[in-house]
Amino acid sequence: MSDPFDIAIVGAGPAGLAAAAAAARHGRRVVLIDSQPKPGGQVWRHDVRHGYPAMADRSIREALSSRGVTWLAETQVIATEASHLLLQDPRRGYLLPYRSLIIATGARELLMPFPGWTLPGVVGAGGLQALVKQGWALRGRRVLIAGSGPLLLAAAATARKHGAIVTGIHEQASTGELHRFARSLWRWPAKLAQAAALQVSLRGIDYRHGSVVTEAVGEHAVSAALIERAGHVQRVDCDVLAVGFGLVPDLTLARQIGCATRADTLHPQVDVDTHQRTSLDDTFAAGESCGIGGRDCARLEGRIAGLAAAGVAIPDALLRRRDHARAFATLLREHFALSPRVRELARDDTLICRCEDVSFGAVRAHGDPRSAKLATRCGMGACQGRVCGAAMTELGLGARTDARPPFFPARLSTLGEPDFPSSLPASRGIQA
């Protein structure tokens, strides 16, 4: 077996890239692992038509061009075992040893059930971005975007950039909350600049506050959405309906290896100290797994985690910048909290678990999540509760979103006799 890597980083988004660059700069041998074919994570997902944003391109080149960084693309963490990760790529499965681990697994989109949400053509706001960047044709199609949070604006900008006709953006937060949020942005000049740039790119698109999609309508695919605002319901025709209610931390790996989590928010997050260290020795976490804070916060936390894992002193100025950026997460939670109306959308016959075709009423009929799971198979399908678990938590049904190993579908050869390979693939993600 080969010598362990000094640091294994799971997730090649802004946090993971920053961690890799920081650790490699101090001579550490680093392996950066991600399930996607190109680095960047969800926020910097490679766009087949437009490439990477300038900041992403710089960060990727800095990390993957660093001496000592091995980049493993299209590689999933299937399970963990005593300072080893069981990995699977398109060709093989193998155990990879490490000395320190940095968890930069990011977040998943929060999807809330409502009548018609399983119709073809209904996607998440983040899902829309991912599909379009990977080549889904939207030119000339009518796209309606709804839900909550800044992700709606980013999704609308991406759709328009790819030729879609964005018929409107419907934000469930009230006008008052949006105004209070906007007045607070002066404390984060970079966020203010982002908001201003998005406003320019979305000029002419109707942006409604206190507006909720109550139903997707269609025979074989979505053809319209019912929108409720100030007690009035409006039907809006569309070819694509993108609805997302923010993000929740992805804790699959962190929970599996035993990292403590904080439960001071509705959706738990990894508990870390001031140097991004978890409750486990030599295990660190950075980015959205520590709470939804955005790209800038993730980059700073990744840099701190990389330095800490490398055993390097961390400048106080960097810690102060991280704390300031992390405060933005609190702002998001305060002003984009879901209204009771969103939690009332699901009817008894509305599917809550799409994988196993389980209705909201069937789950609610049971007293606890375990009983519901045993009786209905809710959360036991292909997504392993990653979608319905977060929704059930929001709906007060007490679900947890843990996934047991294997975390993703695995070949029998991966689970059978995985060996550490004699060689690993060279970095191949710095090309645009």
CA gyration radius, whole angstroms: 21 Å
- Main sheet attributes: strand count, strand direction, barrel closure: 7 strands, mixed
Portion in helices: 25-40%
Number of strands: 21
Q: Tell me the span between the first and last alpha carbons.
A: 34 Å
Average pLDDT number: 91
- Supply the number of helical segments: 14
**Poorly predicted ranges (pLDDT <50, ≥5 residues)?**
426-432
Structural class: alpha/beta
**Coarse shape:** globular
Q: How much of the sequence is in beta strands?
A: 15-25%
Describe the 3D structure.
The structure is a single chain. The model is unreliable at 426-432 (pLDDT under 50). Helix 1 runs parallel beside helix 2 (54-64) and helix 8 (295-309) packs antiparallel against helix 9 (316-335). The protein has helices at 14-24, 54-64, 125-133, 151-161, 175-184, 189-201, 252-256, 295-309, 316-335, 340-343, 360-364, 369-376, 388-394, 412-416, and strands at 5-10, 30-33, 69-72, 76-80, 84-88, 93-103, 107-109, 122-123, 142-147, 165-171, 207-208, 211-217, 224-229, 232-237, 240-244, 247-249, 261-262, 269-270, 283-285, 351-353, 358-359. It is of the alpha/beta class and 432 residues long.
